[in-house]
Amino acid sequence: MARIFVGVGSNIDRERNIQVGLSALSGAFGELTVSTIYESEAIGFAGDNFFNLVVGFDSAQTPGQVAAVLSAIEYRFGRDRGGGRFAPRTLDLDLLLYNDLVRQDKEISVPREDVTKYAFVLRPLAEIAGDLRHPVSGERFAEMWARFDQSTQALWPVPPESQQR
Questions:
Q1: C or N: which end of the chain has fewer Cβ atoms within 10 Å?
Q2: Domains of the chain
Q3: Cis omega before residue 111 (within 30°)?
Q4: Are strands 38-40 and 50-59 parallel, antiparallel or unpaired?
């Protein structure tokens, strides 16, 4: 079994899409470890704020199989890939880590570089997997978050009444 971490985000009908996304992930992969939901401003385009979180789970599926399931869930809930990398999202599911696998090719990119670039990925990942180490740098995710320049990307926890988990 592999320990897998997935970034979850939405800025279109955020509460509903995060909820249905978590339900679909649980249905596909079983029990989830779920971080706090965080709100952040859109990066790379002018748009509504995002809700983001990270989930962890164990699976015997290959990285390619996991990626295919994630894409199918996104598609089921209205993901439009025509807007480019920086565009509004109904549901965005990104494979962040697959055990300590390091693989960069057309099919799979793990660890995803977003882990070290974006507060909305690193903070929730550090919350649920702080003692785990980045497969390339060997640094603990909690340590990475502690030294991340948090002044450059605004991020705040979503109040529980808005999470409706």
A1: N
A2: 2-163 (3.30.70.560)
A3: yes
A4: antiparallel
